[in-house]
Amino acid sequence: MFGRLMPQEGKFFDLFNQHAALCVKGAQEMVGLMTHFDDLENRTHAVESIEKQADKITYTTVDLLHKTFITPIDRDDIHKLITSMDDILDMMEDAAQTVSLYDLHAVTPEAARLAELCLSACKKVQEAVSLLHDMGNAQKIVAICEEIDRFESDADHVMRAAMSKLFRDEPDVRNLIKMKAIYEILETVTDRCEDVANIVEGIIVENA
Question: Fewer Cβ atoms within 10 A, N terminus or C terminus of the chain?
Answer without folding.
Answer: N
